[in-house]
Amino acid sequence: MKLIKMIFLGLVFTLSSSIVFSQKITITVNYADAKIHALVGNTILKPAIGTGSAVIKLDKNSFNKIVIMKEGFEPLVQEYPKSQKWPKEIRVNLENRMVQIMAEPFDADIYVNGINVGREKYNLILPKGKSQTVEVKKAGFATNKKVYYNQDGQEDPPFKDHLTLESRMVEVSVTPADADIFINEKLVSKSSEDVIIHQNECVTVRVEKEGFVNEEKVFCNSKKDPEPPVSYAFSLTDRVVKVNTTPETAEIKMNGKIVGNGSYEVKVPNNECVEVIILKDAYISRKLNYCNSKEYQEPPVTDHIELMEDEAFKTSVSTDMANVNVTIEVNKSISDIEAWKLLSSIVMSEFDVLEVTDQETGYIRTAWQVQSFNNESTIRTRVIVKLGDSNPLKYVLKIASERADNVVSVKDDQDFEEWNRILKRYQYIMEEAQARLK
Q1: What is the per-residue pLDDT for 22?
Q2: Which of 36, 39, 64 is nearest to 49 (CA)?
Q3: Second CATH level (architecture) for the domain 21-92
Q4: pLDDT in tens, 316-328
Q5: Domain regions of the chain by residue span
Q6: pLDDT for position 1
Q7: What is the mean pLDDT of residues 155-170?
Q8: How far apart are CA 239 and CA 213, in angstroms?
Q9: Do the bridges between strand 168-175 and strand 231-235 make them parallel or antiparallel, or are there none, so unpaired?
Q10: Identical fold at 21-92 and 97-164?
C-alpha cells in the first residue's frame, strides 16, 4: 500500500512539473515586423520592447499590459497579470485589418454600412472574415462608395485610402411628373433623376413631354464655369400645338405674319392665348384660338385643320379694279345730262337701292348688296360714283368689294375687310361704263 502511494505521488509530481510557469513570458506575433510596446494606462511607451517577439518580466503590481501594432492592422491590447499563471511561450495573432480613411471635402460625411461615423478621417476596422462598405457623401456631389474586405480570396485592403468627391450631382425633378428626362440625348427616366457631372465635363439635360415646349439646361463641373446647383426643378408650363392643314399649301398666320405652310408648331405661353389664322385662296379661312390657362380648355397636342372650298371664290373673279378709284373721261359728244343718265342706268341695272344720288354734285352711292356663302362667309358690294372734273367731264367709279369670314350683318363694319375679288355679276359694270361713256 505504501508503495502504491509513493508511485501516485511521483506521477503527480511528474505531471505538474511538465507544465512550466514562469515569471518571464515570451510573446511571439504572427507578423515578424509587428511592434510590441508596453502600455501604461492609455500611454504607449517608447521605444518598442520588441519587434515580432518580446520577453516580458511579469510585475506583481501591474497588469503587464502591452499593445501590438502593425500598419494596416487594428492595434491589439493584451495584459498578463502576475496573479494568473502563464505559459512561458505565448503566440498572438493580428487578424483585424485597419484602413485609415481620409475624406475630401473635409465636411463630407463618412458612412460605414449605412451608419454615419463622422467627417474628414476615420479608422475603419475590418474583422477577420468580414467586409465593410464605406460611402462618402455631401449634397451636390456624387457619392464615392467602396467595399473593403478582410477575407480569404479577396485583395488585402490598403493601409490608407483617400476618398475624394470630384463628380458633381444635381438632383433633377420635373413637372409634369411624367415628362421624359434626357441626358446628353439619351432617355434616362421620368419624374426625377440624379444627374452626375464628372470633373471637367458638361452635361446637357433636356425635359420633354408631348404638348409642351421643351426645356433644356447645361450643367458643368469645372473651375471656369459656375458651380452647378444641388438641385434643379424643371417646370414645363408653355404649351405647343402641332397644327397641320388640308390643303398642305395653306398658309398659317400668327400676329399678322405668315409663319408656315401646311404645318407649324404653335407655342402658347403660360397664362396666354394665341390666335392662329389658316388661309388659302379659294378656301374658307379658319381662325383659331389656343389658350394656356386654367380658365380655358386645355389646348390640344395636335390639331388638324381642313379648309372648306369657298363658294364665293367660284362665283367671283380676281381683278385689280376692286376697291380702286377708276377715272372715266366722258366723250365730248355726250352731254352732261346724257352721261348722268347712262351712269345711273348702268348702276341701277345691278343695284336696286341707292343710298345717295345727287345729279348736281354728280354723286351716287348704292346700298350694300350682301350675299352669304357656305354659311361661313359674307360678301358685300356697292358702287360709288363721283364727279371727277367738269371740263373735260370726268367721273370716278369705284366698286367696293368686302368680305367677312362669318355670316354677319351688313352693318358689322368691323368684321369686313377689302377683298381683291368681285362677284361675277358685277364684273362688267366698270367695263360697260368705260365703253358707253367714251
Answers
A1: 53
A2: 36
A3: Sandwich (2.60)
A4: 999 999 999 999 9
A5: 21-92, 97-164, 168-235, 239-309, 316-437
A6: 41
A7: 96
A8: 5
A9: parallel
A10: yes
Ramachandran quadrant class, 375 (left: phi over 0; alpha: psi -120 to 50; beta: rest): left
CATH number of 316-437: 3.30.530
pLDDT greater than 60 at residue 378: yes
The single-letter code of the amino acid at 371 is: Q
Round to whole Å and give the CA distance between 385 and 395.
7
- The helix/strand/coil state of 363 is strand
- How far is residue 368 from each of residues 326, 401, 403, measured CA to CA in Å? 19, 9, 12
Burial 144-175 (b: 16+ CB within 10 A, else e): beeebbbeeeeeebeeeeebebeebbbebebe
Mean pLDDT of 10-14: 39
Summarize pLDDT for 30-72 with one digit per residue, the tens: 999 999 999 998 899 999 999 999 999 998 888 899 999 999 9
Asked if residues 37 and 66 have their Cβ atoms less than 8 Å apart, the reply is yes
Pair 207, 179: CB distance under 8 Å: yes
Give me the DSSP letters along 71-109: TTB--EEEE--TTS--BSEEEE----EEEEEEEESTT-E
Reply yes or no on domain 168-235 having CATH 2.60.40.
yes
Q: What is the pLDDT of residue 83?
A: 87
pLDDT digits (tens, 9 = 90+) for 139-154: 999 999 999 999 999 9
**CATH number at 239-309:** 2.60.40.3070
d(Cα 10, Cα 397) in Å, to the nearest integer? 157
Choose among 288, 290, 277: nearest CA to 238. 290
Tell me the pLDDT band of 7, cut-offs 50, 70 and 90: very low
Q: Which residue is listed with cell 475624406?
A: 103
Q: Give strand ranges (E) for 223-362.
A: 231-235, 239-246, 251-254, 257-261, 263-268, 273-279, 286-291, 302-306, 316-318, 326-329, 354-358
Instruction: Say what the pTM is.
Output: 0.69
Check residue 119 and give its pLDDT: 95
97-164 carries CATH number 2.60.40:
yes
Cell matching residue 162: 483617400
Nearest-CA neighbor of 214 among 238, 232, 243? Answer: 238
